[in-house]
Structures are given as structure tokens and as C-alpha cells.
Amino acid sequence: MKLVKAEIIAIGDELLYGQIMDTNSHWISQELDLVGVKVVRKTTVGDKREDILTAFSEAEKRADLVLITGGLGPTQDDLTKPLLAEYFNCPIQEVPEAVAAITEFFKRRGREMTPLNILQGHLPSCCQYVPNEVGTAPGMWFERGETYWMSMPGVPHEMKKLMRDFVIPKLPEIFELPIIFHKVIKTAGIGESWLADLINDWENALPENIKLAYLPSLGHVKLRLTGFGTEFKSIEAEVDNQIQLVLPKIQKYVYGYNNETLETAIGKLLRENRKTLALAESCSGGYITHLVTTVPGSSDYLQGAVVPYHNEFKQKILRVKKETLESKGAVSEETVQEMSKGVRQLFGADFGLASSGIAGPDGGTAEKPVGTVWIACAGEGFIETKKLQLTQDRLLNIQLTGVAVLNLLRICIEKYDK
User: Fold this and answer.
1) Mean pLDDT of 287-312
2) Domain covering 4-174 assigned CATH 3.90.1180.10 in the classification
3) Contact indicator for 48, 76 with CB cutoff of 8 Å
4) Structural domain boundaries of the chain?
5) In the beta sheet, which residues pair with residue 354?
6) pTM of the model
């Protein structure tokens, strides 16, 4: 089975200047991946004739499918349509059906149609007109040799409508597509290189039709297994079998699969064990509570939270001892132990979580530099703590602390409540 290769060309100066982020290419890549089409290149090009024509020529040499977004507006700087006509050597002519659709679009919205808008219904004679039901710029489908082309507006919701209604359904008609199955293993508490060392032998023994990708992000590493074949259930079974083989090596780091987040995994564990949670956040400033409460139904297990930023309130609200703060400091193992115990008692929760650290960019010392964070989890008969040495970036430190605290809770639930 031949691999179907696609190239995405995003057109517009605003993309190169950073005024608009190209979310279209990212979305298109995901959708094509789901149906077994491999994106081999993404090109961003400005509103310049020579550059656009060069992008067309290069894409045709290496791709079976070329998807173009942007440059279809009614003004003179929108060059995609006239340059496609030039590239395919065919004139632009009125398409009555397209003009009628644009006219109706304006009529439904009670807006006046201009001569420029009417020109959007004039298309290269060699293309197939593809109606745009949610905008005024039609889609254009071209075929030449063994390469297929689709030009779409850069407005995301218009592009997505054309992709879903026309492009994706058309692909099986013109290409023999493989069956692809993905499954993602979510891990936390281990870095990419350490994880790779743990599973090196397993990775090297993977069958040829199953590929592994490491997808690191803040505090997490995702392992994406992709299986290729001709029958869905057999591929799914193969991938699941490989996961069962690797789990004994990495089980303690795994918190979920596919779209599951660490916070949803925590919520599931708390519900299953009928346990509750309370938080005391100093350096993380409420960020962890935010993560927890993004999960629908989190009121089932979240009792409450406090942000005792100043030491006075660590003492008043959480009963942290004055002598602990004076002798050990706010950023210390002893302080977060007392914070986690105090917040657990304050809210009558099964687990108390605490964070205290130096988020930066100021406030560090030689003994406790910026990025030093202590976290703790207190439960019935135990307190687990961990020291983090993070970065010089304040926001990054807050986010990494959030992941570390929730992962510590996961570890404690599995260790003490199973």
C-alpha cells in the first residue's frame, strides 16, 4: 500500500509577521493523520507572487495532496486564486452557482454585497467549485497528474467545514488509505531520557507496523504508539498487547491514556477511593486548585483551598509554628509538612496538599535559589514530601509545581489507599 503524502501551504503575510498563529495547519495535520495521510511538509508563505508559485511547484513534486489555506479574500493582496489560475494555466471565469451562493449569504445576513464580493464567485475554469456554506470564499479543487489540490479560506471555521464536508470524505475515493490506530500512554514524574532508557529494549523489539513517538510537555511525557495495517481490531489488539508488555517497566509513572489529563486521573482515583482533598498553595498561588476545578464534578472530592502567601497567614490559618518559619524558613520541608497537615485538618479532608517555594525571578539565595520548591501530601498516618529544583522562569515554575503536586497525590493514593 502506497503512503499518501500531503503538504500544507499556509498563505499570508500576517502568519509570517506573527500577527496570527497558524492553527489551521496543526488541525489539518491531526485530521489527515486520523485517516492515514502523512503530512510531509508544512510551508508558510507571504503574499508575494514568486514565493507562492515556488511553493506550489515544490509541493507538486513531493505530495499526492496539496492543501492550501488563506489568500482568498476579495482584496488585491489576496493572491491565491489568481496564482492558482496562472499555475494551472486556465482563465478565471464567473461560476453562476458560486455567485448565487454568495448573494444568498449576504441576503441572509442583511448585508450589502459589493462588486468585490461578486468577484469571489469567479473561479479558475479548471477547478471544481466547492461551496462554502459558512463564508463567501468558495473552496477550489484541482486535479493534475497524480496530485490533488484543495484551496480553502484561512478563516478556521470555514476551513474546517470544507475539510469535514468535502476533503476528508473524498480521500477514500481517490487514495487507498491504510488503517491507523493511535494510543497514548501518559506519564509524569520522569524525564524523557530516563523513560527512554527504561524502555529501550522494548522499543527496539517493536514490530515494524508499530511506531513509537515521545511527546514531552511540561512535567509530562506522552508515549504515542501508532499501529498500521488493514484491519482495525487486529491493529488495536497489537498495540494493546505492546502496552501490556511495557507497563511493568513504567507502571508507577503512568497516570492515564489518550486524552486523560493528570487532574482527571486524580479525580477518578479520589472518587474510586471515596477520598477528599484540600490544598494549601503558597508559591503556586491557586494554580493547582484551578487545575483540580477544571474537572466537572470536582466538588465531589475537593473540600477547599487556601493561598497563605504571607507567613502570618500560614500561622493563623494553617497553624504552622512560628519557630518553624523562623528556624527553617517558609521554603522548607518542615513548613510544607505543617501546611499539609494544617489544611487537611482545616477542611476535614483525607488528603492535604501543600506547596511553598521561590517562583522567581527574585527572592533566591545561595542556599535556596530561584526555582527551589517544597511540596507535601499529608494523609492518615503519613506525610510525603519532595524537593523540586526548577527554573528561573516564574510562570514555568508555577506550572511545573502544579504537575508535581498532583503527581505526588497520585503516588500517595496508590501507595496508601489501594
Assistant:
1) 97
2) no
3) no
4) 4-174, 179-257, 262-416
5) 280, 376
6) 0.76
pLDDT 10s digits, 348-388: 999 999 999 999 999 999 999 999 999 999 999 999 999 99
Cβ atoms of 240 and 227 closer than 8 Å: no
Cell of 216: 514531552
Residue 260 contacts residue 186 (beta carbons within 8 Å): yes
Which single residue is written with the C-alpha cell 492515564? 256
**pLDDT tens figures, 109-132:** 888 888 888 899 999 999 999 999
Cα–Cα distance measured from residue 98 to residue 120, given in angstroms and rounded to the nearest whole number: 8
The mean per-residue pLDDT over the stretch 86-108 comes to 94
Cα dihedral angle (95, 99, 104, 109), rounded to 10 degrees? 140
Cβ atoms of 196 and 246 closer than 8 Å = no
Quote the cell numbers at residue 189: 514524574
Exposed/middle/buried for residue 412 (C-beta within 10 Å: 0-12, 13-18, 19+): buried
Place of cell 529494549: 201
Cell of 284: 503556586
Which residue bears the cell 539565595? Answer: 365
Query: Among residues of the chain, what percentage have pLDDT more than 70?
Result: 100
pLDDT over 80 at 418, yes or no: no
* pLDDT at residue 113 in the model: 81
pLDDT category of residue 77 using cuts at 50, 70 and 90: confident
For 179-257, CATH number? 3.30.70.2860
User: What integer is the mean pLDDT of 250-269?
Assistant: 96
DSSP 69-112: ES--SSSTT--HHHHHHHHTT--EEE-HHHHHHHHHHHHHTT-P
Q: 44 by DSSP, 3-state: which? A: strand
Sequence letter at residue 101: A
Can you say whether the dihedral through the CA atoms of 246, 247, 253, 258 is positive or negative? positive
Which of these, 280, 337, 343, lies nearest to 307 by C-alpha position?
Answer: 280
Distance CA 342, CA 182 (A): 44
* Neighbour count for residue 372 (Cβ, 10 Å): 23
Q: What is the CATH number of domain 262-416?
A: 3.90.950.20
Q: How far apart, in whole angstroms, are the C-alpha atoms of residue 389 and residue 358?
A: 10
CB 328 within 8 A of CB 380: no
CA distance 235 to 225: 11
